[in-house]
Automatic annotation (TrEMBL):
Residues 36-47 have a biased composition (Polar residues). This is Nicotinate-nucleotide pyrophosphorylase [carboxylating]. Residues 127-300 form the Quinolinate phosphoribosyl transferase C-terminal domain. Keywords: Glycosyltransferase, Pyridine nucleotide biosynthesis, Transferase. Involved in the catabolism of quinolinic acid (QA). It holds the Pfam family QRPTase_N. Hexamer formed by 3 homodimers. One of its GO terms (molecular function) is nicotinate-nucleotide diphosphorylase (carboxylating) activity. The keyword Transferase applies. It comes from Oerskovia enterophila. GO terms for cellular component: cytoplasm. PANTHER family: NICOTINATE-NUCLEOTIDE PYROPHOSPHORYLASE [CARBOXYLATING].
Amino acid sequence: MNSPSLIEPGLDPRWVADIVTRALDEDLGPTPGRDVTTQATVPPSGTGTAHLVARADGVVAGLVVVEEVTRQVAERFGLAPVAVTFTAQDGDAVTRGRVLAALTGPVQVILTAERTLLNLASRASGVATATRAWARELDGTGAQVLDTRKTTPGLRALEKYAVRAGGGTNKRMGLYDVAMVKDNHVVAAGSVAGAIEAVRRMFPDVLIQVEADTTDQAMEALDAGADFLLLDNMPTPVLADTVRRVREREGAPGGPAKIELEATGNLTLDRAREVAGTGVDYLSVGALTHSAPILDLALDLIG
């Protein structure tokens, strides 16, 4: 494989280039920077091959950054580019010891790029691995696992990409694309209806989701015209009853055609199928991004 296939809708190449530049600046100092150990011990003319290897079972993601990291390092040091041959794709399930890519070229470039490419790919692969566990548990239920905005600052695009690679679904990308009316917004606006009305007046193009802790709150939000309900921290019987009541309203005269329902709060993998069985469309899990451990990857120089 010459380059890994992107998980749709992919990553913006400009974003990838920018985050790699920032990460290299952290490691090397301001452009062009320096790697005092590698540049002292490895001649610029030295060439070799290194393997990117999985040290644990999991799902890989973020391989798409590898070529950009090596490209930028070579450019900074005025060295020849590194040729990268991939033997895995983002979204692949891999086992410990699997070679994911071979990097051939100036050893200075390979060693200097090592930590940056591993940091990004290991982080993304950890998110993809955690997501795959949820997606597998929900398989056949009709429900999907969603991410949240609880992402690492600066890495949201990569982490949400990794969720897709793992088989999950992105919710909103930020505060700009979907309105989320929470309790503080209700207090500020005076009521759920007031908050929804204010959003529709100023931003008529966005979907409006409302957070509800109780069945009564969910019905109030439905009456006010919410497009999407976030059912937060409800015990399973309460959640099931709320879903039933919402579904009864769908398609009824004067009622909504379809309301998307999302369960969140206190969700664990061992409860996933139980919660999905209530009929919700989504389970949102902040832990996919805020608590997923990295997938251990290594870059081993072989010659």
